[in-house]
């Protein structure tokens, strides 16, 4: 029994030793660190090139030939120093060309001013108003004639009826006397008809002449609207048709009066004509005389109606003339505005030519010298001796302090703000100088950003390079852990702490997960918020991947 017990204990000791030895090989070995109150520090390094902070541009005249380059890119110049020379022959030729162009531009401007002077004219509205006034006067006169005709008709028909009754039982001598009076009356009626015919025809002819004059005026205008010409032509044709109708109607009236006059003369000469025939002639004469009076009244009414229609047409013409004149005035206003704008453009061209001529005269007076306007450094102009200048050719002078331009990762650039200080080591020069960040420009669509820092006066060379470093510290946080202890998965940020746990083999260290909220982090540390004890040993590195709940063995801190 004793031997058996000793053997069992021996085996157990060997197995325990082997178990410990195996643990030393299989258990993850880790190094740890501790969280503490402190700051988060940043150190950013990079390289960049020097560029001009701002440029002053010296514009060269177009199509000039470079004679000699005196100052090359990168050379410093002072205000008044000659940078390059232009050939004099080409300058003199350019001055002559500019003088001719300037004189031509001034003449064109004077011509444009003269063409823009308005020419007095009678508007269509004025002519239409005159025609309307004439139509109103004619209608008033026609209405007066109608009133007189109506009054004459009443008196004349009453007289005719009285005469007709009396002549039925008259004596031979009375009949003869009546016939004589009828003959004289027929003659007067004929003369009156002839005079009325001449007056009506003359009036219609004047209307035709007025319409013809209006059409001639419109045809004389180069800018007369086509619709106005067509309307004027139509009015003329209507007036001519009215003239023919009046002439035919009045001629017919004259012929009827002439025939009546001849019949009255025959009746007077043939007094012994049969009684029945005489009675019939008397009745017929009475009826014809009444009809003649009715026709005169009807003609007066027709005349008034025609005058009313003429007045209505004149009113329509006035409205059309207003629209036409409005269009003409708008067109004239547009032409005037176009002329004004053209004159302004010409004046601008003249001022530009005058400025070019002044610059050319100044260059000729300076024997073709192009001088620096301010102190600075000559940048690349892209010109060599013998070259011809193009439109927009310029000499650039870098003035003021230089800027250090650097490209860096966007996540690092987010730490830099305007005014951040950086230490700059200029290539080829000992020591460091301090620069100040002016701007940080994020480049859209990339993970890079451009940082621009202003160099001290006189430091750096245009196109040169330098390295820089930036050290920054955050405010003090209650808990800052080593950046190696910070982990992240799909749940969020956390860390693993090596904490003791009881097992069948005794107390062992196990990886315990602690969830964290990151307040700020850098490449060396992270300010966090979470249930992390001051003495918690936070796993920073391990010989293999470690996860929550695994046994670990601390080999470092």
UniProtKB/TrEMBL annotation:
Which domain of life does the protein's organism represent?
Bacteria
List the subcellular locations: Cell envelope
Q: Is Coiled coil there in the keyword field?
A: yes
- Primary localization class, coarse: other
**What spans are recorded as compositionally biased (Basic and acidic residues)?**
203-223
Q: Where is the signal peptide?
A: 1-21
Q: Which UniProt keywords apply?
A: Coiled coil, Signal
Tell me the segments the record calls region Disordered: 203-229
Q: Which residues form a coiled coil?
A: 275-363
What PANTHER family is this protein classified in?
EFFLUX SYSTEM COMPONENT YKNX-RELATED
Q: What is this protein called?
A: HlyD family secretion protein
